[in-house]
Amino acid sequence: MVAYIAKRIFAVIPIVLFAILLMFALVRMSPVDPAEAYLAAANIHPTEELLAEKRHEFGLDQPLFVQYLQTVKNIALLDFGNSYMTNSPVWEEVAARLPATFQLAASSILLSILISVPLGFLSAIYKNGPIDHFSKGLSYFGASIPQFWLGYLLIFFFAVKLDLFPVEGRGSWQHLVLPSVTLSVALIAIYTRLLRASVLEELQEFYVLYARTRGIKESAIMVKHVLKIAISPMMTGLGMNLGKLLTGTIIVEQVFSWPGFGRYFIEAIFNRDIPVIQCYVVLAACLFIVCNLIVELLQLYMDPRISWKERTEP
User: Using one digit for the tens of pLDDT, what is the confidence trace for 246-270?
Assistant: First the structure.
């Protein structure tokens, strides 16, 4: 098992390097000149002398391979340069906004798990019953409604009409309710259907029949065996959506004026702030990779058959 974990961790390194290479290539192929973008952000007229000076300062006059190695070195040191707009280190500004995004993502994931796990499990146990029909309706609603529209609807009813929650900003737990619900509705729809299908599939397995034959309590079979294995596909979806939430809460952060990383990225795009854009792309790729790695290791703990298959595969 230790060898399996080490193999998965080392496999992350070339993926990260490829993500950096892809980001590097996209920036170099962009029609936006970093030197020109920097001078435009500083409201300085771009003369040829100033452009040449800034290109030399940014290392853009060096061979591409040297630029790529320098980029990898800087990223390893968390040095993404200075923002064109504020002239402050990008990583410091990103680090100041990441806690807000982490808080929003964590609350959304927690809310979706607390609702989708019992709902998906019960809808499979009581198939075609009232709970199952309710979960289907909720899933259709969550999968079809756009997040920005749902956010505005929640603001209209619960903030403007009922005055129960604040409209925008970050502060107390009340500020967290509406954006968390907006993000979690789509996740609840996905996780509920995934878990329901997985539980129904596990109920057809022979080990469930054997456990019932041995006289094991139905509740123990359902919780200790069926649910533990059936939740694995949901864990996979959780890993993918966690990385997406940490980097893709852009729309919700804009709707609720949430001071997170996604909103900062939108501002960087409008201002052609290339160092911030580079930081976002690299950080997004790394978060996706790390989140999927963590979920894979959790699946290994919950289902040891994964490591056994790895050892027996040619």
Answer: 665 777 888 888 888 777 888 787 7
The total number of structural domains in the chain stands at: 1
Per the DSSP assignment, residues forming a β-bridge with 89 are 82
27-67 per-position pLDDT tens digit: 778 777 777 877 777 778 878 888 888 788 777 788 888 88
The CATH number of whichever domain residue 104 belongs to comes to: 1.10.3720.10
Which two three-digit tokens encode residue 48? Answer: 């040829």
Query: CA dist 246 to 7, 85, 115, 256, Å?
Result: 26, 24, 20, 16
Q: Would you say residue 142 lies in a domain?
A: yes
What's the domain range around 154? 98-260
With respect to residue 102, please indicate whether it lies within any of the assigned structural domains: yes
Task: With CA atoms as reference, report the closest residue to 62 among 73, 71, 74, 50.
Answer: 71
| Cα within 13 Å of Cα(195), Cβ side | 31
Q: Residue 82 pairs with which residues in a beta bridge?
A: 89
User: Does residue 209 belong to any structural domain of this protein?
Assistant: yes
Can you give the pLDDT at residue 314?
A: 45
